[in-house]
Design brief:
single chain, 156 residues, mainly alpha, Serine Threonine Protein Phosphatase 5, Tetratricopeptide repeat, 9 helices, 51% helix, globular
Length: 156
């Protein structure tokens, strides 16, 4: 793997989605590329929107909603938002754009209404084998976490 592929792999696969500091930096960089505020030899504005769509929710949402107003990026942003569930109050921003006549925002709203995010997933297996641990008394996730046995890292 060359240096460019390595750097792209780090950006795509090694920066966690969500709302931690690394996700904030990743979303900020990708948003800047999408808006044209900065450029990257590895990430085009279209690829930036596509990657923002993989971040599940959090810092990526505003740039995706903003991209609904860009004719070149809107189809990619609409596809990404159609499969993003962690929208919280940002739902109303998409709704507002749809009511104002933005066709891509309308597509997103319709996609959510049709539950495409759910129906596009592979069907569940006919049979699923699981293991159940029965614990007497009261238990919670702390009992299952490696945190008490770790000396460093996020779970401290």
């Amino acid at each position: 793997m060359g240096e460019e592929e390595f750097l792209l792999d780090l950006l795509i696969n090694r920066v966690p989605p969500g709302v931690d500091e690394a996700a904030y930096v990743k979303a900020g960089f990708l948003a800047a590329v999408a808006k044209g505020d900065t450029t990257s030899p590895l990430v085009s504005p279209e690829k930036a929107i596509e990657l923002l769509g993989t971040m599940q929710g959090g810092y990526n949402i505003h740039p995706l909603i903003d991209a609904l107003d860009d004719a070149k990026l809107a189809p990619i942003a609409a596809k990404a938002l159609s499969h993003t569930l962690l929208m919280f109050d940002n739902f109303y921003d998409v709704e507002e754009k749809a009511k104002a006549g933005n066709e891509y925002a309308k597509q997103v709203m319709q996609s959510w209404a049709d539950a495409e995010w759910f129906l596009s997933r592979p069907p569940l297996a006919e049979k699923i084998t699981v293991t159940v641990f029965k614990v007497t008394g009261e238990t919670n996730t702390d009992d299952l976490s490696p945190a008490p046995r770790r000396m460093r890292g996020r779970d401290r």
